[in-house]
Amino acid sequence: MLDSLFPWLLLPLGLALGWALGRRARTSTAAAIAPEQLGGLLTQLASDDPDQAIAALTQVAELDHSTVELHLTLGNLFRKRGEIDRALRIHEALLSRPGLAPDMQAQVRRELAFDYMRAGVMDHAEAQFERLVADGRYVTESLDQIRTIYEQGRDWEHAIAAARRLEAAQGESKRDLIAQYECELADEARRAKNVDEAIRQAKRALDEDPGCVRAHLMLGALYEGKQDFGAAAQAYLRAFQLDAHFLPDVIEPLYRCSQKTGHSEGFLQFLADAKEISSSSLPYVAEARLLADEGLDPTDRLAQGLEVRPSRAVLAQFLEVLEKQPAVIAAGLDKPAASLHRALRRMMESSPRYQCGNCGFSPRQQFWQCPSCKRWGTITPIDEAMRLG
Length: 389
Ligand SMILES: [Zn+2]
Known about the structure:
Blueprint: H1 2-26, H2 35-46, H3 50-58, H4 65-80, H5 84-95, H6 102-119, H7 122-134, H8 139-152, H9 156-170, H10 175-191, H11 195-208, H12 213-225, H13 229-242, H14 247-261, H15 264-277, H16 282-293, H17 299-308, H18 312-322, H19 326-330, H20 334-350, E1 354-356, E2 379-381
Antiparallel strand pairs: 1-2
Helix pairs in contact: 1-2, 1-4, 2-3, 3-5, 4-5, 4-6, 5-6, 6-7, 7-8, 8-9, 9-10, 10-11, 10-12, 11-12, 12-13, 13-14, 14-15, 15-16, 16-17, 17-18, 18-20
Bound molecules: zinc ion (ZN).
């Protein structure tokens, strides 16, 4: 196994060993590690026997800065290679050694905590990070790792508590992150069909961060589910006001709410505002739909939309209207129009609907934590992949 590892391993290890030997030559204190021991270590690594090398290393009589560095270098290399058991053995043995200076002890403990994380033994990792915090070492990093552990475990209550500790230690607001965790709790309540608790929880998210678009969208859906269409429309509208990128996510729900409340003027006003605020073609598509609902011909509005905001969404809607027009049917053009319409819809359906503003990841569905870069609240709808029509 070490055949492939060896050339890669040897270079940084060799550098560390060279540094240790150089350091030894410059100091007059007793040697912490003899050159022949180092040679033996390299031989064991070269002869594909890393466990013997670990045994030799952990038996080194005295620990000074250079030998600790050697342990850490080797341990980290094993961890990077995914050989967590070997990394753990080195770091655990080193930490149990008496006489380790406090700064070195903290360094080893930090590595050990990352080993446990990689091994998936999260309670051990957390305990080591907590010990570092208690010792006043690597405090913000450790608190952030504790937060990550709870986040990965989807333990949102503890993740909130960890984020608050991090906020206090770092002096930087984590309110937007905490609001996302509150939204996760709201989502859990919603999935458990506990609508009132979900609403309370979404409001807690807004207490934390009034600009949390996700909480407003969630409240909109929850109120809509309770047939409170006025409150739902207000929540959807607020989400759009906070971030116009979310127009594709709110336009259809707002249309539904206006149908239920009979408040079509409010929806028309929203569309007029949306034309001003956003560069989307969707308001034209929605207006055409309203005209069609009233039995009026929407082709002029769609032609205007194509002129001002050309998009696949307007074109698809236009073709759908055209294929039903008597003159088009009489001319035998309804079938070509219908196949063009279907092709466009298929193209739109296969396009990504969302995109992460941080890393560019483009999923088909909304994720509030980007699966690629792990940032929260960075994924927004792509306008072109509209949902209306
Ligand atoms: Zn991302």
